[in-house]
Design brief:
heterodimer, A: alpha+beta, Ubiquitin-like (UB roll), Fumarate Reductase Iron-sulfur Protein, Chain B, domain 2, 2 domains, five-stranded mixed sheet, about 10% strand, B: about 675 residues, alpha+beta, Methane Monooxygenase Hydroxylase, Chain G, domain 1, five-stranded parallel sheet, 18 helices, binds flavin-adenine dinucleotide, binds iron/sulfur cluster, binds FE2/S2 (inorganic) cluster
Chain lengths: ~250, ~675
């Protein structure tokens, strides 16, 4: 197929960016979206131009690095996939595809399609852990049985890949889905309960400090999340937060 | 040629590690505050090491090339992590895990290291559960296990198909706790470009800030490299796009010996290559071999009909299928070790039985597992005479619960539904057993330079068993290195801060800058990927699943010529003082072009077949690997002397005091 691409190009954090048009031929359905961009980049390099920069690494939907806004949707039109797992068979010959970085005040652009998501790290640093030493003097792993259902729910919350699509999808650029996934993972486990109050307060405080917006329950995040992280996590975090505030 | 001292403590195998820990010098907590440690790499090995070192009180700086430690390639590990917990009561023990690992590695690993690994394995699971890692559980609320290849017990812990993700996020959270306490300073989007030695000791690194292009100096009392494997020397592999050998290779050039570079693991169950545009290969976890049966058609006509799209695999009757692993290896069947399974697939495809367009694919079939699980589920839910449709649906539900994300991934890539038609798989490069040589303390041949995780060579011999890399990474990082490094650092309590304005740092920095300038000033014939793909083809065709003397000699010549061409004609666009993904790639590929040649040289030197290293000249009549213990029971450790062809071989003799060397048999 032959495609028209409109891609956001921006030299660096301090420059102004703009959309640039490219056409690309010989795209096959079996290619992933990023492989299509590889082909474009190879052409650009051969012409002596700078390739389009984008974040990527694992290319199998698990590292959370890839982060493109494709035709207005984070990770593109397919559901439950990241950009690297999106295949070109989802597009048709002659299509125009608009490719932009994830947009949010808390995610400033570094170059082209690469954004700075270190705010997510800082939210995790504020409380996304259980305070246990790692030198290995803990109790036997089977000492506390955990209901399968709870363990499974905790696992599902823990599968968030930290990509930021939820923020990019939200008109308020809220990071509630991301933050609540971690809060939930630990809130559902007995070993996480001990610090539950402090954790939710610290993580929410950091989230606000980073400049993410408020949640107005539009649910756009859940729709675009490549890992199917559920809105229930936000509800759970709200309960945890309320409890924490009542406790003072 | 010299003989290497592995510093394995004396005494009975089972007591070595405890005894060693008892004797090791310790650094008192007040002094630890005056000691800096650099950890390059934040995967399972580096992330866990950084967390424990910080917790012990050292000042830690971490480095990774991704934008966050959470994205290290450990995140992609799917199937599970081994531990000798014996929760299933099936006769497992530290000794059995030790024995399986040595045998699985085809008797080319160090007994004492492997025993320590097996000993610490149970501790890892306890530790991770305490940190809130949500492993899979059974209905009684206890931890569940599955089986991996090459063993007869069920000792693999897992979190669906995302075990690596959950373990890495555990290590990441432990790091975050220490970052929050100010004990770890993270340098993300930073690449280590060189190791700095002062008076023969590793005292820091030169790093490039990948956002700004700035070249930085960082000093420390010791440097830990946990930078992962070098499978990307093959261009196509299951590794992440950025996985590289740069850090290890720079250390090698500064004096760290590189061990067993030719020991590479080709994983039997990956999604086959679909075309030239392909940028990487995707693994389908080994755990699938618990339930999937591997086959090709019995008759070559049927294979041909399938390739031409005239026949569907589901149309082929049971008796017309060749379940070749079950046929050749009745004792282990579909769960033979990876090297054996990969070679068997290649053998069938080379003989013309491949089932996709390119003829390089075999089937992994879940139909019988779906029926088996479906019947069981029907019975346990009280349906005595469930119909076929119900049984099939129930069976699919069980398979989905176990492997759902893998099946989804397969469907997205291949555009076929693996619940309805068998998966197609083919071997692909996956893991590198070789790496920097380390002694029992995980120290390389450079004083103060340590190496952990996939980047070192230590525990897996010539073939790694499934679910053992995660175990090794975390054992190295949480429980081994933080202690053994203390012995070294105890001599540094009065050293004070290491200055970065010394001539050694000046020199290292200017060498890094020169190299970058040289890469940027190539006359510009070809892109970096052009060279990387060429290198990958040479490696796959001549240093891949089967190797022979002539091919290896050719590979050495071809890689050397390609390297010369690269330095003359590579084209890197953009600028050096800003973000430049092409420049990053160029630096990595330049090192692969050196490593690749050493790899071939190592394979050429090892005149035997063992584990993943299969030399066609050395095989039994049935086509199994033929080891030569008399002449090759050693670790090859290469010393850098300029060009790879000049590298000097040092040997570490492997001593087996507790295990009798046998021909590996899975029949
Ligand atoms: C698809 C896949 C599935 C797997 N499944 C399993 C499994 O089920 N069970 C199992 O036991 N093993 C599995 N493995 C193997 C296992 O995941 C790896 O061997 C292991 O995770 C490696 O961990 P590591 O910490 O050594 O390195 P990595 O996790 O690769 O981390 C390397 C780190 O080094 C950094 N780095 C590299 N170079 C530089 C540089 N020059 N400068 C700065 N930083 C640098 C990176 O940023 C990263 O942080 C799998 C591997 C793959 C690829
Ligand atoms: S919640 Fe979903 S969309 Fe948001 S960061 Fe996690 S995986 Fe990405
Ligand atoms: S590149 Fe890792 S999730 Fe897309």
């Amino acid at each position: 197929m032959r495609l028209n691409l409109k891609i956001w190009r921006q030299k660096d954090a301090n420059s102004k960016g703009q959309m640039v048009d490219y056409t690309i031929k010989g795209v096959e359905g079996d290619m992933s979206f990023l492989e299509m961009l590889d082909v474009l980049n190879e052409e650009l390099i051969n012409k002596g131009e700078e390739p389009v920069h984008f974040d990527h690494d694992c290319r199998e939907g698990i590292c959370g690095a890839c982060s493109l806004q494709i035709n207005g949707e984070p990770h593109g039109p397919d559901r439950l996939v990241t950009t690297c797992q999106l295949h070109m068979r989802k597009f048709n010959d002659g299509d125009t595809i608009v490719i932009e970085p994830f947009r949010a005040t808390a995610f400033p652009v570094i170059k082209d399609l690469v954004v700075d998501r270190s705010a997510f790290d800082r939210i995790q640093q504020a409380g996304g852990y259980i305070s246990v030493n790692t030198s290995g003097n803990t109790v036997d792993a089977n000492a506390t049985p955990i209901e399968k259902e709870k363990a499974d729910d905790s696992f599902y919350a823990a599968t968030c890949i930290g990509c930021g699509a939820c923020v990019a999808a939200c008109k308020n650029a809220s990071a509630m889905l991301f933050t609540s996934a971690k809060v939930s993972q630990f809130a559902l486990l007995p070993q996480g309960r001990v610090e539950a109050t402090e954790r939710v307060q610290n993580m929410v405080r950091q989230m606000d400090l980073e400049g993410f917006g408020n949640c107005t329950n539009t649910g756009a995040c859940e729709v675009e999340c490549p890992k199917g992280i559920s809105l229930e996590n936000i509800a759970r975090m709200n309960r945890e937060y309320l409890n924490a505030t009542v406790k003072g | 040629m010299g003989i290497l001292d592995s510093k394995v403590p004396s005494g009975p195998l089972a007591d070595k590690w405890t005894e060693h820990k008892n004797k090791i010098n310790l650094v008192n907590p007040a002094n630890k505050r005056n000691i800096d440690v650099i950890v390059v790499g934040t995967g399972l090995a580096g992330g866990s090491a950084a967390a424990t070192l910080a917790e012990l009180g050292y000042n830690v700086k971490t480095f990774c090339y991704q934008d966050s430690p959470r994205r290290a390639h450990s995140i992609a590990a799917q199937g599970g992590i081994n531990a000798a917990k014996n929760y299933q009561g099936d006769g497992d023990s530290a000794y059995r895990l030790f024995y399986d690992t040595i045998k699985g590695g085809d008797y080319r690993s160090r007994e004492a290291n492997v025993y320590r690994l097996a000993e610490e394995s149970a501790n890892i699971i306890d530790q991770c559960v305490a940190q809130g890692v949500p492993f899979a559980r059974d209905y009684g609320g206890l931890l569940d296990n599955r089986s991996f290849g090459g063993v007869l017990v069920s000792r693999t812990f897992y979190a669906k198909g995302q075990t690596g993700q959950q373990l890495l996020l555990g290590a990441y959270s432990a790091m975050n706790r220490q970052i929050n306490r100010g004990k770890i300073k993270p340098f993300n989007r930073h690449e280590m470009m060189d190791l700095v030695l002062v008076n023969g000791k590793a005292r820091g690194i030169i790093a490039r800030d990948l956002k700004t292009g700035e070249i930085e100096r960082h000093s420390a009392h010791a440097v830990v490299l946990a930078t992962g494997g070098y499978g990307n020397v093959f261009f196509l592999s299951t590794n992440a796009m950025g996985s590289n050998v740069m850090a290890a290779w720079r250390a090698h050039r500064r004096g760290a010996f590189f061990a067993n570079p030719c020991f590479t693991q080709i994983h039997p169950t990956c999604i086959p290559v679909s075309g030239d545009h392909q940028s990487k290969l995707t693994l389908m976890s080994e755990s699938l071999r618990n339930d999937g049966r591997i086959w090709v058609p019995k008759r070559i006509e049927d294979a041909q009909a399938i390739r031409e799209g005239k026949m569907k695999p589901t149309q082929l009757k049971e008796e017309d299928r060749d379940y070749y692993l079950e046929r050749r290896y009745p004792a282990f069947g579909n769960l033979v070790p990876r090297d054996v399974a990969s070679r068997a697939a290649k053998e069938r495809c080379d003989a013309g039985f491949g089932v996709n367009k390119t003829g390089e694919a075999v089937y992994l079939d879940f139909a019988s597992a779906i029926q088996r699980y479906g019947k069981e589920a029907a019975l346990t839910s009280g349906m005595k005479d469930a119909d076929d449709k119900t049984i099939t649906q129930l069976g699919k539900d069980v398979i989905e619960a176990k492997y759902g994300n893998l099946f989804q991934m397969y469907e997205k890539i291949v555009d076929e539904n693996p619940y309805e038609t068998p998966m197609m798989i083919y071997p692909a490069v996956h893991y590198t057993m070789g790496g920097l040589w380390v002694d029992y303390n995980l120290q390389t041949t450079i004083e103060g330079c340590y190496c952990a995780g996939e980047a070192n060579f230590s525990d897996h011999g010539a073939n790694r068993l499934g679910a053992s890399a995660l175990m090794q990474g975390l054992a190295d990082g949480y429980f081994v290195l933080p202690y053994t490094i203390g012995d070294y650092l105890s001599h540094d309590i009065r050293t004070g801060k290491i200055p970065t304005d010394s001539p050694e740092f000046d020199k290292a920095e200017s060498e890094v800058k020169d190299r970058i300038n040289k890469l940027m000033s190539g006359t510009g014939e070809h892109s970096v990927d052009y060279y990387h793909k060429k290198l990958g083809k040479i490696m796959w065709n001549k240093c891949g699943m089967a190797r022979n003397e002539q091919g290896l000699k050719e590979a050495i010549e071809e890689i050397s010529a390609l390297r010369t061409d690269f330095w003359k004609n590579v084209k890197v666009t953009g600028v050096a003082d800003g973000m430049n993904a092409e420049l990053e790639k160029a630096g990595r590929v330049a090192d692969f072009l050196e490593l690749g040649e050493l790899f071939a040289k190592d394979a050429l030197t090892r005149n035997e077949s063992c584990g993943g290293h299969f030399r066609e000249e050395y095989q039994t009549e049935e086509g199994e690997a033929l080891r030569d213990d008399e002449n090759f029971k050693f670790v090859s450790a290469w010393e850098y002397k300029g060009e790879p062809k000049d590298a000097v071989l040092h040997k570490e003799d492997l001593v087996y005091e507790n295990i009798e060397l046998k021909t590996r048999s899975y029949k």
